[in-house]
Amino acid sequence: MTYTGNPMTEAMYYILLALMNPNHGYQLMAAIDQVSNGRIKMGPGTLYGVLTRLQKDGLIVILNDDGRRKTYVITEAGKVALRAEYKRLKDMVQDGILVEEI
Amino acid sequence: MGKLVKRVMFDDMYAIGRNESWFSDMAKKGLHLKKFGRIFIYFEKGKSKETKYRIDMIKEAPSQEQLDVYQACGWDIVTNNGNLYVFSADEKAGATELHTDPIVQGFSLSELNKRLRINLIITSIAMLLFLGMIFSIYFLTNEPFLYMIKSQFVQQMLLVIVELYVFYSVIRNYVAIRNLRESLLQGKTINHKEDYRKARVVGGILLGLVLSMALFTILIPLVDIAKSKDYTLPEANTNLPIVRLADIEQNPKLVRETGYTDNEVDWANRVRYDWSLLAPIQYEIYEHGIIKGEMWSDKSGEYSPSIITRYYKLIFGDMAENLTLDLINRHVWRDNIEIKEVNNLKLDKIYIAEDGSRKQIFAYLDNRVIHVTYYGKKKMEDIIPFVSEKLGSYQE
Q1: Which InterPro entries does this entry report, sorted A to Z (chain B) (predicted)?
Q2: Is A12 in contact with B58 (Cβ distance < 8 A)?
Q3: Of B65, B98, B110, which has the smallest distance from its Cβ to A25's Cβ?
Q4: Using CB atoms, which residue from B68, B100, B107 is nearest to A41?
Q5: Residue ranges of the domains in chain A?
Q6: Any idea what DSSP says for residue A96?
Q7: What are A's interface residues with B at a Cβ cutoff of 8 A?
Q8: Residue by residue, what is the 3-state secondary structure of A3-45?
Q9: Cβ-based contacts of A48 with chain B (< 8 Å)
């Protein structure tokens, strides 16, 4: 299943975000925890589910695999998707500014 | 290591929520999941523990690094069956939920979903071919009743039921994963404490029924082989449902003429006994004689009359008429031969067909059917009383 530009799930978004810097499994979880200010506690099943899927869709690649651990990094296509999602979210927040006036 | 305890997988192996809930309840009873198969599940006996189980679909075998991450999050790998991996965590340890995003989990089932769908399509085609084959036997033959009692009809029907069960499990697999995937993609998480009892009871009853039918299916041909036999027809009086040649011919010069002999059975003077569920007593009896010094009417050779008797005792008397008609269809093969019904008080019905020296009588009484083929010079009227007397009074 390729990424078709539908809204990303939160997990996909944060993993792409965290992979702006090359990273591997466990540290990635910590990075997500950090980047979301501890708001996101991602399950390991979800983490690897997303990694498999993003890799298949060409949004991330394995930068290095020393047999012990794999280091992932975002691809250009991944950056484009991430930017598109960022813009969508930003638009959504902007549109929602009305809420503040209630 | 504790003792291994085996349990049957009555439910669908893809009923993820129900199985997780079952494994947890077993752990509470001190039975900890060890191996997860399609048919059997193995548990190791130990102390009661509060354990959470999660069944996860992982496309490629997880690397050590991946398993380490799972473990760091509190999840230990227990076992796997193909791509289905089972992880466990101590209920009290407060491990992060294995899947925190149902949509991602839903995606992980896409491939399995596709595979099970293809499986279902292939099985459906095979099933259609199989059913078509079975039913064409009955629809294409001109003598369905004869075929039914001769062949292992009941056995074939049982086989159909067993096949249908296999088909049902393939559908069940597919529906379980399809529904689960859809509900995950809608953002609904799996209910890890889903009630599994009802599904296990229903699955168990179904499996039990099908297994007993399968066992029955295996037993029938064995009974058939054990019961059927061939032997030479004794020259002395027998308690067989037959009219003897000597009774018809009334000629002291009649002697037996032996035919092809195999396994000490004289094929011209032979009793073949057979069994089937629908017709537990079936005889096909041949008798052949010769009268020295007497010629056939057309002078074609020495007069050698013979008689073949087929006798069937049916379970269902309602089949007698149809079986008789099938026998007529099978054994009266020339179109110009007239089949006449003869009135008879003793039997339910008698039909006769005459073709030169070949005289055939088909009759039934209640659940017993007889077919006599006589080759000889005696007249039809001479033979009918013998047949009607025999069928009317025959006791096994």
Answers
A1: DUF2812 (IPR021359)
A2: no
A3: B65
A4: B100
A5: 10-101
A6: T
A7: 1, 9-12, 24-26, 29, 40-50, 52-53, 68-70
A8: CCCCCCCHHHHHHHHHCCCCEEHHHHHHHHHHHCCCCCCCCHH
A9: 58, 62, 66, 69
**What is the pLDDT at residue A34?**
87
Which of B69, B73, B107 lies closest to A1 in CB terms? B107
One digit per residue, pLDDT tens: chain A, 102 residues?
345 556 788 899 999 999 999 998 888 988 998 888 888 889 999 999 999 989 999 999 999 888 888 999 999 999 999 999 999 999 999 998 888 887
* Contact between B100 and A11 using a beta-carbon 8 Å cutoff: yes
| pLDDT reported for residue A2 | 45
Cβ atoms of A75 and A58 within 8 Å: the answer is yes
**Token output for B166:** 């296999």
| Residue of B86, B87, B104, B112 to mutate, interface with A, max A Cβ within 10 Å | B104
Cα separation of B125 and A95, whole Å? 53
Q: Measured between alpha carbons, how far apart are the two ends of chain B, in Å?
A: 63
Please answer whether residues B249 and B203 qualify as being in contact, where contact means their C-beta atoms are separated by less than 8 angstroms.
Answer: no
User: Measured on CA atoms in the order B2, B6, B9, B14, is the torsion positive or negative?
Assistant: positive
B350 touches B363 (CB < 8 A)? yes
**Chain B residue whose CA is closest to A46:** B99
Cα within 13 Å of Cα(B32), Cβ side: 21
Tell me which DSSP letter residue B236 carries.
S
For residue B131 the two structure tokens come to: 């059913």
pLDDT in tens, B323-377: 999 999 999 877 788 899 988 878 899 999 998 889 999 999 999 999 999 999 9
Do the Cβ atoms of B73 and A70 come within 8 Å?
A: no
Distance CA B22, CA B199 (A): 11
| Non-local CB neighbours of B150 within 8 Å, separated by 6+ positions | B274, B276, B279, B282
- The predicted pLDDT at position A1 comes to 39
Q: What is the amino acid identity at position B24?
A: S
pLDDT tens for B277-289 read: 899 999 999 999 9
Q: Do B97 and A43 touch (CB under 8 A)?
A: yes
Question: How far, in whole angstroms, is CA B308 from its chain's centroid?
Answer: 31
pLDDT digits (tens, 9 = 90+) for B178-233: 999 999 999 999 999 999 999 999 999 999 999 998 888 888 888 888 889 999 99
In angstroms, what CA-CA distances link B138 with B133, B134, B303?
A: 9, 7, 41
Q: What is the pTM of this model?
A: 0.78
Please name every residue paired with A101 in a beta bridge, in sequence order, or none if there are none. Answer: none
